[in-house]
Structure formats: structure tokens, C-alpha cells
TrEMBL record:
Domain PEP-utilising enzyme mobile, chain residue ranges per copy: 194-263
Repeat found in the keyword field: no
Record lineage: Eukaryota, Fungi, Dikarya, Ascomycota, Pezizomycotina
Protein name listed in UniProt: Pyruvate, water dikinase
Coiled coil: none
Domain called Pyruvate phosphate dikinase AMP/ATP-binding: residue spans: 1-149
Organism of provenance: Didymella heteroderae
Length: 601
């Protein structure tokens, strides 16, 4: 008998259960016997491992570790039914069930089992608390994405959303609207109104007749491998599990929108939103010489775009990971003991529980967040822009007000490259460097390219490259490329000199337009004057492309203009641009516009 009652157990899939991304191993874990994870009566830990690197002994390809509440565990009992639930301790709730070695071992086994059966697999595992051995206790084929056609998918858009009522773990990638029907027990099946949104604490097999009649399902408890999640996928019903409070904040008869179309986090909005969808057939997309890449920011939403035949990630925004996943100012983590506000200090301590070195929290979270972006692009390049918060945005991070000046115009203030070598931030920048080094050398994403934003002068370029090298990221070593944003007129004027220090350019059309025309891009009064298609802006763009090509450097553009106007796409192609990078929702239009422009050139 496996004594997982004094250790842990869980479920794993050899595929991402929500997007069908087949390069991911998904593992859920909780303390005690596995019944709680399977039934969805606890919110488990979640781990993701990148399959292609799993047999590399020099790498640790874990790209996600998410701590679950795990508020109870099931153990053996001397009385019938011979098992019982007991509360977990504070230490158990704040600790991950699996260490890195265990996570990688389970992932390796998942790959072996998948290879043996020749299809994506759904497996259960257990760890013996006496011997510390791991066991696979069940394996069966995954039944949802294994049967779907890979070349097509449906993309949902949610507009006119009400306020967010609660969030949880999204199951699937669709959305639904309807009236809430709170049901406490399957015995109350007669009270359920067909077509309503089922809201309950948790589900088990007795709930299936009700689940079949629901427009959507929302539960308080459970993870992505819980009963509610598995059955919802099989039924094709939109579901959000593990909200923690849906049965308290919602009420029967209330009109809501259930959205799983925004990534791994599912959102429940007040009222009936406007939902639209379209089927995307990637097999019909034209091929282009000009590379069409993606702008991405949210790691939780990245996997849903794996089917798009993009040429890589042209802009990975680090700021989203920092503001949404880390949330704490890096200097507040480095100098945690010097924080003046006790409430802020306590909040940081709570968020970084399990980290003796608070800086490590920043490095791990950033590395894992960026890894999930790089994963859908590998082996194509993923261009990661170094942090480009303005001072007012940095100040909004937890502990940030203590470290940020108040500027009259943050848009052209202490931002981008000027921060990286400054005494007021270079220690924080060192954490960014450590995260990218971990991403490339420990996790394995050597396709990560660094991009320096808002680099005003050649001297500044030298200083930033020095700081990168000092922190173990020397341009040219281990294949590391360093790009620079071309978003300031000086970047265009001195493009051939900048080319001596960087491997490529990416035109940031928003800032370049703003600084060329002298327009605050956030000004409503001047909005009609703000245009990338202005003659002066197009002149600078064409000059930047010409100078980059003369210097033998790659150059791309990240922005929405090529999707909004086919003529602008044609202009870029005629100038000889190497790549354009756009939001996923614009990818199809841009790919078509670029193909048309190439055909006409």
C-alpha cells in the first residue's frame, strides 16, 4: 500500500487540458490521499513542465509552480469508511507538496506513458510518506483534446463586460451567459432550471445529470483536474472551478457572464456581456517571407495561441508578469527590512511565504512567467523587452512609493534604459538579469532574446550592455542576442552607430509617433493628430529600416498599424522590413495583409 496519507498525491496530464498545447505536462498535487484532488474538494498545487527539455540532465524545465490552498487532507481511519478528512496545518498549506526532483520525475514518467500508448494521457500518482517513493496508480487516455482537429479552433471575444464578481480556474476557452442557479445537493435536481448557470460548492458523479443541463458551471472548490473540470470538458460546458466564494457572492436568478476566454484565470462578470466568436483555420493561412510574430504579455493566456503559425514572439512584455504575478517592487524585496510601512512589510511577508531570500521570489516568478511565453514560440525567437514601467507605474507596485520619485511627465522621464545603470534601480535590474539567466540557462529557453527599451544615447547603450554583462548576460555568449527598441528619433538618426552595439532593432511605433509629432499619446484632445501613417513618422520608419539593413541588422515593428491598414503593411514590406509583431487577435488580418503586400511588391 502506498502511504500517501502521510505524504501527497494527485493527477497529471501529458497535455494542457484547456488549450490542448501538447508540449506541456500538467501536474496537480495535494496532501494526503488523492480522492480530494479527483473530486475537487481542495484547491491543489499546480505545476507545469516543458516536455521537449525533460530529458536534458542540465536543465530544470519547470515553467510554473502555483501554490494551492490545500485546506484539508484525506487520511486513513480505523472506522468506516476507513478514510476521513482532517484540516491541514498552516505549514502544509503554505508549502508545495512536490520538490523539483519529484516534479521532473513525474513529468518523465508522463512522457514515457504517453509514448507507450501513443496518445495524450490522464494519470493519477501518489507519493509514499515512509519511503518517499513516487508511484503511478492509474493511467487512461485523455478524452477531450486527443479527438479534436488541431488545425482549427474557436476564438471568443467578450465586450461590454460588467464588474468582476469573482475569479477562478478557467476550464476550456469559451464563454457563456445566463441566470445563476445555486444548488447545494444533487438531491435538489428538480430545482435546477435547464439552461441556467450551475453554482455549487463542488461536484461528484451524482451531479452529472444536472451538469448536462447547465449553460455553465461554477464551483467554490477544485482545480483543473477535479471532477467538475473533467466532466465539464467532456460535456463541452464552460466552467470555472476553485473560486473559493461563488456560492457566497452570487445569488440565484442573478444574470452573469462566465468567461474562460481570457486565459487560465476565469472571470465571472455582473450582467450579460456581448459574446462573439469565430472559427480560425490555421491551415488556410498564406505563407509570407516577412515574419509575422506575436505581442504577448500574460503567461496565463499564452497557451491558447500555440496553434497560430507565428514566427516567434516579437514583443514579450515583462511588465505584465511583474505587475500581475509578482506585484511587489523589486527594491522593496531587496531592502525588505528597510520598508517603513508595517502594513506593506506584512503584506510582502505573506506573499513571499516560503522564500527566506525575498529577492528569489522576484527571480523565480519572473523566470517562470517569461518561460510560459517562450514555450509557445520555441525554437523560434522570443524577444523579451526589459522592464519599461514609468515611475508612476512602478510606484503602484507594493512598496513602490518608497523608491520612486514623482515626475511631472513620466512618459519621457526615468524609464527604460536610464534605470538599469542608475544607483536608484540597478540592484532591481540585477534581479531581472538573474531571471533571464535562469530562463535561458536553467529552464532551457535559449530562444530568449533581450530587448532594451527607451535607449536615448550611444553612451547609454554602452552602460546598459555593461550592466547586462556584469550580471552574467554578455552579448554573444551562449548565443545571446540583444536588441534595442527604435522608438526615439535619436535611435533612427544614429541607427548605424546603435547597430554597433545591438543585434537588431524593433520599431516601437507608439513612442516613435509621439516623439516625432510632439503629441502626448494619451491626450484625447490630440487623438486625431496621432497617426503612425503621418508623413514624418513614415519617413523615420523607412530610414530606420534602410540603415538597419545597411548595417546587416534585423529590424521589425511591433504595433497595430499593419492590421488596421493594409496600405501600411504594404509600406513596411516595400521598405524591406524583416518582421512585424502584433496582438494574437490581429494575427490573421496581418498575415493576410502582408501576404497581399508581398504578392503586389
Amino acid at each position: 500500500m502506498v502511504r500517501s496519507d502521510i505524504s501527497g498525491s494527485g493527477v497529471m496530464f501529458s497535455i494542457d487540458t484547456e488549450s490542448g498545447f501538447d508540449k506541456i505536462i500538467l501536474i496537480n498535487a495535494a496532501w494526503g490521499l488523492g480522492e480530494n484532488v479527483v473530486q475537487g474538494t481542495v484547491n491543489p498545487d499546480e505545476y507545469q513542465v516543458y516536455k521537449p527539455f525533460i530529458n536534458r540532465p542540465d536543465l530544470v524545465p519547470i515553467i510554473e509552480k502555483r501554490l494551492g490552498d490545500k485546506e484539508k487532507k484525506r487520511i486513513y481511519s480505523k472506522e468506516e469508511p476507513f478514510t476521513r478528512n482532517v484540516p491541514t496545518s498552516k505549514a502544509e498549506r503554505s508549502a508545495l507538496v512536490l520538490n523539483d526532483r519529484d516534479i521532473q520525475q513525474l513529468a518523465r514518467w508522463a512522457c514515457i506513458i504517453e509514448r507507450h500508448y501513443g496518445c495524450p494521457m490522464d494519470m493519477e500518482w501518489a507519493k509514499d510518506g515512509i519511503t518517499n517513493e513516487l508511484f503511478i496508480v492509474q493511467a487512461r487516455p485523455e478524452t477531450v483534446y486527443a479527438t479534436r482537429e488541431v488545425g482549427t479552433f474557436r476564438d471568443y471575444s467578450i465586450k461590454s463586460k460588467g464588474r468582476t464578481l469573482t475569479t477562478g480556474c478557467s476550464i476550456g476557452d469559451a464563454a457563456a451567459v445566463g441566470r445563476v442557479c445555486i444548488i447545494e445537493s444533487p438531491a435538489d435536481i428538480d430545482a435546477f432550471v435547464e439552461g441556467s448557470i450551475l453554482v455549487t460548492e463542488t461536484t461528484d458523479p451524482d451531479w452529472v445529470p444536472i451538469m448536462r443541463k447547465a449553460a455553465a458551471i461554477v464551483t467554490d472548490q477544485g482545480g483543473r483536474t477535479s471532477h467538475a473540470a473533467i466532466v465539464s470538458r467532456e460535456l463541452g460546458v464552460t466552467a470555472i472551478v476553485g473560486t473559493g466564494n461563488a456560492t457566497y457572492v452570487l445569488h440565484s436568478g442573478q444574470e452573469i457572464t462566465v468567461s474562460c476566454a481570457e486565459g487560465e484565470t476565469g472571470y465571472i462578470y455582473d450582467g450579460i456581456a456581448d459574446i462573439s466568436s469565430k472559427v480560425i483555420d490555421v491551415s488556410r493561412l498564406p505563407r509570407t517571407i516577412t515574419k509575422v510574430m506575436l505581442n504577448l504579455a500574460d503567461p496565463n493566456a499564452a497557451n491558447r495561441w500555440w496553434r497560430l503559425p507565428c514566427d516567434g514572439i516579437g514583443l514579450a512584455r515583462m511588465e505584465f508578469v511583474v505587475s500581475n504575478h509578482i506585484q511587489i517592487h523589486p527594491m522593496a524585496l531587496i531592502h525588505h527590512d528597510l520598508i517603513r510601512e508595517e502594513a506593506v512589510k506584512r503584506r510582502i511577508e505573506k506573499m513571499t511565504i516560503g522564500y527566506k531570500d525575498k529577492s528569489r521570489y522576484f527571480v523565480d516568478k519572473l523566470a517562470h512567467g517569461l518561460a510560459r511565453l517562450c514555450a509557445i514560440a520555441y525554437p523560434n525567437p522570443a524577444i523579451i523587452r526589459l522592464s519599461d514601467f514609468k515611475t508612476n507605474e512602478y510606484a503602484n507596485l507594493i512598496g513602490g512609493t518608497q523608491y520612486e520619485p514623482k515626475e511631472e511627465n513620466p512618459m519621457i522621464g526615468w524609464r527604460g534604459a536610464s534605470r538599469y545603470y542608475s544607483p536608484g534601480y540597478k540592484d532591481g535590474f540585477a534581479l531581472e538579469c538573474r531571471a533571464i539567466k535562469q530562463l535561458r540557462e536553467e529552464i532551457g529557453f535559449s530562444n530568449a532574446v533581450i530587448m532594451v527599451p527607451f535607449c536615448r544615447t550611444i553612451e547609454e547603450a554602452k552602460l546598459v550592455l555593461h550592466e547586462l554583462a556584469k550580471n552574467g548576460l554578455r552579448r554573444g555568449e551562449n548565443g545571446l542576442e540583444v536588441f534595442v527598441m527604435c522608438e526615439i528619433p535619436s535611435n533612427v538618426i544614429l541607427a548605424q552607430k546603435f547597430a554597433g552595439y545591438f543585434d537588431g532593432f524593433s520599431i516601437g511605433s507608439n513612442d516613435l509617433t509621439q516623439l516625432t509629432l510632439g503629441i502626448d499619446r494619451d491626450s484625447g484632445q490630440l487623438a486625431t493628430l496621432f497617426s503612425e501613417e503621418d508623413e514624418a513618422v513614415k519617413y523615420l520608419i523607412s530610414e530606420a529600416i534602410l540603415k538597419a539593413r545597411k548595417a546587416g541588422r534585423k529590424i521589425g515593428l511591433c504595433g497595430q498599424a499593419p492590421s488596421n491598414n493594409p496600405l501600411f503593411a504594404s509600406f513596411l514590406v516595400k521598405c524591406g522590413i524583416d518582421s512585424v509583431s502584433v496582438s494574437p487577435s490581429s494575427f490573421l488580418a496581418v498575415k493576410s495583409n502582408v501576404a497581399q503586400a508581398e504578392a503586389e511588391a
